[in-house]
User: Fold these one by one.
Assistant:
Number 1:
Amino acid sequence: QVQLVESGGGSVQAGGSLRLSCAASGYSRATPYMAWFRQAPGKEREGVAGILPIGGRLTYVDSVEGRFTISQDKTMLYLQMNSLKLEDTAMYYCAARDGGTLRPLLESEYTYWGQGTRVTVSS
């Protein structure tokens, strides 16, 4: 039914920028609530950026605050990543749910997941 496809990953030097995209399909009635997650080698998946249902305020994990920006346009989700650091290296995943959540960075809140797009930051 619902499918999420990420794109825009690649290799970049520290200090550089990338813009990730996620295309959602299969939503016939409502705009999906979506967020970005990432998983570095040997680590747990963590919430990176999300959108609160009250006022649409953007929320981020502390490590990317001020460097990443999440945005959504209907079924398209974006993550602008600036001033990239080595520790940003990870597989980045798009996640979606049918309604809003007050915990947009919590993995268990989401039902649908994309295959991921790899981001590699080097010095």
Note: The mean pLDDT is 95.
Number 2:
Amino acid sequence: QVQLVESGGGLVQAGGSLRLSCAASGRTVSRYRMGWFRQAPGKEREFVAAINWSGSYTYYADSVKGRFTISKDNAKTTVYLQMNSLKPEDTAVYYCAAGSPLLVIERIDYWGQGTQVTVSS
């Protein structure tokens, strides 16, 4: 019913930037909170950032506050994650997610396929 397709991952040096995109489609997309999770090797999947389609709500994990910015384009039904000042510990597979009523891992209904972000030291 909802499809999420991520893009924009890659290899970057520490201190660099990447911009991830999540193209969302489906009749019920507007019902969901949107955001990003990430999972590093051997680690649990963790919350990164969330947004609603009105733009009235954004929330970030403490580990990325001040460095990452989540945004969206309603006309394109696309969510973005601008990642600046990247650190090696940001290395992970990043997943776009749609959840209701809250963007917590227990309430995620749809996941993207993931995009790899690798930050070299």
Note: The chain has a mean pLDDT of 97.
